[in-house]
Amino acid sequence: LSSVPLQLLFYINGIYYIFYFLATLAMIVYKSQVFSYPDDFLAPDLALLFVMAILEVLRLYLGSKGNLTEEEAPLGLSLVITVGSVLLSVYFLVWQTYVLKADVIINAVLLFTYGLESLLKVTAIAAFV
């Protein structure tokens, strides 16, 4: 009953998130050098990026484990953590101090994969029950 498309999406999303993390980190450093980035906002933006990375690792681990072992609880917990990841992605898309066009593009792709993953998770949970 394990979902092969969901497992494949976990793998692709894991690779994409590494790119997302490094690109966002590089853009924050770039913005802090080129623009007058307020010091009061630099540390929180970096902290939120690292919190997002921790959530992403947990989300992908629990989702993959739940899918492979055909258990609803880890997959459901991964779905709940996805909500936090979506909120942080929206922060970097809308509420960040400076939002570049590259921010919009990489966050849009990330939000699309979150949406697709969520649909597949709900489908997999329904199949396991």
UniProtKB/TrEMBL annotation:
Keywords: Cell projection, Membrane, Transmembrane, Transmembrane helix
Key word Phosphoprotein present: no
Organism domain of life: Eukaryota
Statement: the UniProt record of this protein carries the keyword Transmembrane helix: yes
GO biological process: non-motile cilium assembly
InterPro entries xrefs: Uncharacterised_TM-17
GO CC entries: ciliary transition zone; membrane
Residues that span the membrane, as ranges: 6-30, 42-62, 74-94, 106-128
Membrane topology: Multi-pass membrane protein
Major location (coarse): other
Localization per Swiss-Prot or TrEMBL: Cell projection, Cilium; Membrane
UniProt-recorded name of the protein: TMM80 protein
Biological classification of the source: Eukaryota, Metazoa, Chordata, Craniata, Vertebrata
